[in-house]
Amino acid sequence: MTFVLSIFAGRLVQLQGLDSKVYAAEAAEQRIRGEKITARRGSITDVNGHELALTVEARELFVDPSVIPAAQRDRVATALAADLGRPKEEIAAKLADPKKRYVPVASVTPAVAEKVLGHEFKGVGSKHEYRRDYPGGDLAGTLLGFVGDDGDGLTGLELVHDKLLAGQDGEQVIETGAKGQRIPMTHTTIRTPVEGRDVRLTIDRDIQWAAQKAISEQVAATGARTGSAIVMDVQTGQVLAVANAPELDLKNWEKTSSADWVNRAVSDVFEPGSTNKVITAAAALESGAVRPDTVFTVDDEIRCADRTLRDSHPHPVERLTFSGVVATSSNVGTILAAQKVGDQKLHEMMQRFGFGARPGAGFYGEEAGLLPSWEKWSGSQRCTVAYGQGVSVTALQTASVYQTIANGGVRVTPSIVAGTTDENDALVPAAPGKRTRVVSERTARQVTGMLEAAVGVDGTGTMAAIDGYRVAGKTGTAMRYDAACQGYCGYTATFVGFAPADKPRLVVLAVIQDPHKGYYGGEIAAPVFKKVMTFALKSKKIPPTGTTPPTVRIRAGE
């Protein structure tokens, strides 16, 4: 007996003395586990602080089928299905396997969770969590983007600013019993979560709504494939609205094709057509090759290398001033002016306006477009580039060109973020956009006069005119390349301009892709411009200047 007891005593000394730390560590490893404390994700708001994306408290309902008696499963499934508005069969399937210990059922509001737990069903519980909500549904949907089930940003600004919005998750240690139940009074928080920061955009919620409404209605009315609209502040380069049609409903993004998650206003690339003539005009005036009253003899067609290029409609030979060339959107007249400038200088001017480079506005999916080197231009391309065929841009790049002209020749890098909050929830304004002199103030003023004439009675943009305001703008109608037909088999209709013309405050662009009921920019894009600009001017309380537009000579001899 003494020998046996000495063996036991030795074993006890080994377990409790020599090896105690090893076994204690193994025991702790079995009962202690870390539990993530999710940080609250920051909000995305418009420029006035209205929440466009926010995080709300939620509860994850779960069931433990192993402790729910078989006789009670039908009753539990019936009650949960009624409370959650789900099919009873769906809930019953989650309760069917008694070997499972934890089966998530739904993410619900705290009120719904309280109602479900009020039944006091054994094996039904809830866990605190956060859920992303988008109050506006599809308002700025492709701009904002969305988060996945794990709470990480997947696209849009939710992805661009994911690290800032997400914050840092915390962690607490909990102890569980043999069956996985939590042991009371044993939790210890080892890292406190850091809440996510808020991001305030330059977007104005009301103007965004108006832009989406106008572009979506026109896309539907013309049977178009897609459309985009942009509103920009002339002086700051801040984007007040960026709308697409179709727009992404953020409450149902899982049911939407990934092709419609894209913010087309910054990622779709197209040939700009006649809206590009403003760059040719600026290059011609800046170089001193022409003046606004320089007269061109303009036929309705011109031979360029192996191609004959034509104006949009047949007409007799006209003697147009350069202002008249721009106002009437003559392709032939624009080519004649570009030939006075030269390929290299025209290419350099396009670069100065931002073509061939990403705008750097902070959008997700910004594209640079396509600006081939001037040495590689084909014989006909040396002519077509002058009126916007043979180069490719995005809607944002085009809007930026007109912001530059409206701002006296100074380009301000577009921006979408107004500021972010710091650790004390105080707003820290974003740095202003970079300012770059592109053309002289005189050139910008002369081009503005031409664009104002383009909206006048002799121009192509008469449908963009707004009563009481002086408006400057340009139509654009370009053949559209489509990979489906492996060639040009549709149109891009555009109108872009600014107001008031003599004291510019806002730029508005509307572009409609592949319309089937009309295709001229002056007919189907200009009305969108008018609606959006009228609303934005009223929303920003920008009054008419009350001045009279100068007389612009369109034809020689007038």
TrEMBL record:
Q: Which residues form the Penicillin-binding protein transpeptidase domain?
A: 227-533
GO BP:
cell division; cell wall organization
Q: Which InterPro entries match?
A: Beta-lactam/transpept, Beta-lactam/transpept-like, PBP_dimer, PBP_dimer_sf, PCN-bd_Tpept
**Keyword annotations for this protein?**
Cell cycle, Cell division, Membrane
Domain Penicillin-binding protein dimerisation, residue spans: 37-183
Q: Which GO terms describe its molecular function?
A: penicillin binding
Q: Where does the record say this protein resides? A: Membrane
Family annotation (Gene3D superfamilies): 3.30.450.330, DD-peptidase/beta-lactamase superfamily, Penicillin-binding protein 2a (Domain 2)
Pfam assignment, any one: PBP_dimer
Q: Name one GO cellular component term.
A: plasma membrane
Q: Which family does it belong to?
A: Belongs to the transpeptidase family.
Name recorded for this polypeptide: Cell division protein
The organism is Planobispora siamensis
